[in-house]
Amino acid sequence: xxxxxxxxxxLPAFRALMSKTDTFLNEDAHKRENYYAxxxxxxxxxxxxxxxxRCAIGTPFEGTVKLVSGASFPDIxxxxxxxVEVKSTEKNHWQSIGxxxxxxTRDQNVERIYMTFGKLGKPIQFLSKPYExxxxxxxxxxxxxxxxxxxxxxxxxxxxxxKMNIDYDELRTMDNPVPVVSRYYKxxxxxxxxxxxxxxxxxxxxxxxxxxxxxxxxxxxxxLTVAGYALFPExxxxxxxxxxxxxxxxxxxxxxVINTNIRDSFSAGGKVDMPTKxxxxxxxxxxxxxxxxxxxxxxxxxxxxxxxxxxEYWNADIQEDRLTQWCEMVAKEAxxxxxxxxxxNVLSGIFLHIDKNFAWSAVSQINEEQNPYDKFAPVGYSVxxxxxxxxxxxxxxxxxxxxxxxxxxxxxxxxxxxxxxxHTLILLPNV
Length: 431
What we know:
Elements: H1 5-31, H2 33-36, H3 42-55, E1 66-67, E2 76-78, E3 82-89, E4 95-100, E5 112-119, E6 125-130, E7 135-140, E8 144-149, H4 160-164, H5 168-172, H6 178-187, E9 211-212, H7 218-231, H8 245-255, E10 257-258, H9 262-267, E11 271-275, E12 281-285, H10 286-293, H11 295-304, H12 307-314, H13 322-333, H14 340-350, H15 372-375, E13 382-385, E14 391-398, E15 401-406, E16 411-415, H16 418-421, E17 425-428
Parallel strand pairs: 3-5, 9-10
Antiparallel strand pairs: 1-2, 2-3, 4-8, 5-6, 7-8, 11-12, 13-14, 13-17, 14-15, 15-16
Helix pairs in contact: 1-3, 7-11, 13-14
């Protein structure tokens, strides 16, 4: 690839801008550690863009810094020729999963990209480097993606491009980089490993090697489980002894992972307290806790998936609002275990921008948009007293008073709905 003369001339100035931005972010993080600890994903992109704009004052890049995340790659563009991709981790290390090797949404005007990485595990730190200098491997989550390691140079380890003996710009501008990557990983196979790769399908998520589930890292297990939620919502249903079949086939054929105890991957963790959008705490399966923790990954998988492929996985025509459609399917699958309305309201608390009007109207037991005195927590629903750990059922609601009858037949009255909002009581789905 030929880099323009203008880009080459301004590269030192951009390099200086990135260094200045790192200094600013690190100093600010030292002062506001708790603030940055919660600024993952899109929020951190906004922070980095703001810092870049501030540091660009008095430089050739003043007034040119723009946040374009969601529309194209990379997340931030400066003076059209330069870009910044923002990544982060909540842990105290410098590794993460990066962007797709395909770069199908790359802004063609951008010639040079830097990676700004936020290590949001304390002590919080920021580090920026040329994009290609911090890509260590190619791994498979949904699409083939780069693995980020911001300390490759410090550890004297090669980039993936050095390992493959190919330039980053050469690989990224290929119509189909899959065969090249496939050949490299095939050359690295060890005894007992096999290569799974659909070299004719750029958008395929075919694994590099075949592995047992027990050999995966905790992070890989979590990501593949979350992908199961995103692509196969039926895994969240109850009483369906075939609900893992399609996921198991996908895991083996598309990811090269053999899991002999798939059920344990989804059922582990028991129950967790989850808030609805209105603030009620509900005892939900641990799967909903994973959905909240990995909401950004779920949204990414769903929005980036090929429409035809996703339609096959979901057994449905794909709507314009994919995320809302997925939440609808999850709520329906969870109807038999926790109730559709409860599941929908918990999902509404996780994905705040989903379309409420899309919701399945046939079930509306807990519609927080309506009169809370008859819809907030219906008579007959079970609750747990968060102070005494006693469980009971709602037997009466009238004029702001709710009566709960415990299992030992004792009765206690509570303010309604305040006892839910202050988390004195936790709602238990009727199952």
